[in-house]
Amino acid sequence: MNGSLSEFTVAQLLQFFAIAERSGTIVIRTAGKESRLLVEGDRVSGWGFDTADVRAMLLGCDLLPAHLVESLTAIIRREETPGLSVIVRNLVEPGRWDAFTRRILEQDIYPLMNAENGEFDVTIGRCPPAPLRLSLQVNSLILDTSRWESEMEAAAVEGLGVESLWKRSSPRAPQSPLAGYEWLVWATLRHPRTLGEVARQLCIPDLVTVTAVRRLVRLRLIESVASPAEGLEQDRAK
Known about the structure:
The chain has ten helices and nine strands. It is of the alpha+beta class. Helix 5 crosses helix 6, helix 7 crosses helix 9 and helix 8 packs across helix 9. The termini are far apart.
């Protein structure tokens, strides 16, 4: 079955699966992007096409521990294990894996839930192997989407949108100890970067980055740059 998102949103399609207690896939095409959700009754059980490689996605992150890079590099991807999410998850510490998964939700699932422009294809039947395995209850996913949209809007009003540009207030290392994500964000800001760029480089959610930036601003360790052009000019001057 296929149709337009103007007729049924992804959130509504997921509710149909839950009510009918059916399994299958939903392929969504909107805003020039294509994504796939695997659904089993009232749960989203997976994400991504067979070509998605979770190992490669993690290796694209900055500041990974050397031992993790070595372990991930040693994995050989096979056709029968697309994405390798089970193997990879066992190699990555829980906090990093949770942040990585939540980023995928932010970037590739939440924005699709209420999109009204685009198309969808629904296939009913046994789900194929998931490149990234999930276990998200449909109703919880819908509520989390609403919460994410609200918090991202509030962050943008506060000046902490993904396009906001940030730099270190001082090149010196912080005197006070920083939590993991705060240190990672500070370390990434060797040069002015947008909040979204920092989150993408570290493979962490935008909202996690927002929280870290708030804390770093209170500690006077970073400051905003009025515009990308100004930030680049100041960086060149150094």
